Amino acid sequence: MKYGYFDHDNREYVIDRIDVPVSWTNYIGVKDMCGVFNHTAGGYLFYKSPEFHRITRFRPNGVPMDRPGHYVYVRDDETGEYWTLSWQPVGIDLKKAKYVCRHGLSYIKYQCEYSGIWGEQTLFIPLDDPVEVWNVALRNDSGRRRKLSVFAYVEFSFHHIQIDNQNFQMSLYASGSSYKDGIIELDLFYEENGFQFFTANNAADDAGGFDCLRDTFIGPYRTETNPIAVERGACTGSFELGGNHCGALRQCVELESGEEARLVFLLGEGNRQAGKKMREKYCANGFSAVDLSFKALGNFWKEKLDKLQISTPSAGMNAMINTWTLYQAEINVIFSRFASFIEVGGRTGLGYRDTSQDAMMVQHSNPEKSRSRLVELLKGLTTEGYGLHLFSPEWFEKRTEPSFKSPTVVPLPPKSQRVHGINDACADDALWLIPSIVEYIRETGDFGFADEKYAYADTFDPDTGEGEKETVYDHMKRILDFSARETGPHGICKGLRADWNDCLNLGGGESAMVSFLHHWALVHFCALGRRLGRDVAAYEKMAANIRETCERELWNGSWYTRGFTSSGRAIGSPDCKEGRVFMESNTWAVLSGAVSHEHGRAAMDAVDQFLYTPYGLKLCDPAYSEPDDEVGFVTRVYKGLKENAAIFSHPNPWAWAAEAVLGRGEQAMKFFDALCPYNQNDKIETRKAEPYMYCQFIAGPDHSAFGRAHHPFMTGSAGWSYFAATRFMLGIRPDFDNLIVDPCIPASWPSFTVRRVWRGAIYNITVENPQGVSKGVKECRLNGQSVICNDKGAQIPVQSVGSENLVTVVINT
Ligand code: NOJ
Q1: Which residues of the chain fall below pLDDT 70?
Q2: Cα separation of 246 and 244, whole Å?
Q3: Which among 631, 650, 694, 711 is the best mutation to test ligand 1's pocket, defined by most ligand atoms within 8 Å of the CB?
């Protein structure tokens, strides 16, 4: 069953059957202000922090679902009938109305045809201003003159999520609203400069034109479905010092037959003065600033996406890589994980492992943000060499004291809570940072980054802004040394609080995944060290030791064991009744470069045999059915959900990449296709979730809802899908001095093309496959001249900034 389609030309996903079974969300904003909204305009807006600077409210896990939102009501003033431009909250009978939602890149269009009136509400945030623009268009298709009242409505938050949800003594009596000069101002009096504004192109001329009090606008015993003000056709001009506030503005519109009207509403950061400036900017000259900033937003995304465009025989891969997967990966980097309809902003900060991985995925399209994330992570590293599992970058910036102690001053936790000990450290967290840094240097050529100095988290004093500083290169050494130190009886890295798998809590037990990751990090580090002319002999020896230990201790004759509990029991091995085969140890055995080709093939065969489903690869098999605290929380999650044998999306691309390393293009594609959301567009009765986004997991075969996808958008799955598909399957990889082309594709693909921008030059790459093979670059021409090809692929030297280059690559036996 389908609810919509991909509009490739406009880069939109179009929902033309609006009664989708669950919320299909999208994000607006690309900098400091962000809105998370679903297909019926439910959702919320925040500035910088979804936890501490919430602008509008959202009632998570509520009924009716996804309320409140940013709504536009239209009322026919002759009949009194009213509806919303998004289907909800009024929820007009769909037999009488046509609703469409277009999810675009950082904008959403809600379109409606009802009662002879066509209407559209576009939500977006301009690149340079902290203001949400509502661009509303109406057209009278009814063939007669119409009198309409249009109401725009939002419910304001008290900024802090906690204050919004508990003990309202402070907030209820210390927040006020007022209306003047056509601008609603919310004043959070308990906060220094705590103001929001809501305004429109047409200032209301009477009390009927606005309400600032939520309960007055909605009315007692009513909801957003039937606000009394809309029903009546007029607001009452309410405002007050104290209470729950809203922004409600009415504009009256009279339309001749065929006539169109355009209305603009602005919801923003700052006080009435700021609102006035924004209105002057966006509502003058026929709304030209609205149009220009919408266009600039389009160019912003086009420029990013143009850095890498592909044309392959796979429609799913083309759609996901050319638009949706990069978009999802970028949103994860910009707004880091904790603002969605599932994670509703009550817990924020940077997850060390997630951010380290996220920052590796968009370095070609967002090098500045990737770099600043890397720096934040370097500052969140301890001298011991482990990263702070969840931290706020602000903790490691010089602190300025607020002038008064408002309840909404963001607290600086005491040092003991900012910097946790080893018992709370995850074994993998900081290891991800090393490849991320090295890939950043490969992408940008910013070799000087390795020698920049940053302070360690446990030495940092927020009052002075100083701490013990070392180079980025030294930070990496400390991370590698930590993992070398923290090993267990088999010589494998300890699992500690968790490794990548949050729910595998091995403590002093051992994790194969971490040892393999350690090796992968070493491979990256040594390559960088050699390129910089440093002595890396000690780390090469460390890597050799890991290879030997892993083959000796983890190869169980059939695949790679996942680890050992603290009492020495093997997990993920053939003797286990439950949790016999795991994805992480087998994919990472191959990706790490630590194991033989022969064992790698066998390990990936086991992945196919035991973990493959038509919706992607399960994380492990069989699922755990009994709590076992030596293994961890995974044994207390229901079978087929999350880490307990669900199709966990994030590690699926590891399998595509591992198969590409092994040279098995068919297998890589089979796994890619199974998980690909695009391929599930017509299976929404099963999938339920958005077909344009990867979700954290899909319920596995052990669960009654096998195939249902959960937790969309904010997941590292997108970044890894992008990385695995472009760098391993299509094989376009920057190195320190060359762009490498080394694809591994299905033998049936006759050719494919990639346009890649690298260090300011364009490479138009065509890969030809005349003999129907999967891998093996035999010939490469750069602008007609042949270039070196070796067993690592074609080695294309850096070309001059601004040049456009033609690259042809032939793969052959
Ligand atoms: C989601 C967490 O954000 C991520 O850090 C973790 O690796 C996966 N779950 C797997 O447990």
Answers
A1: none
A2: 7
A3: 650
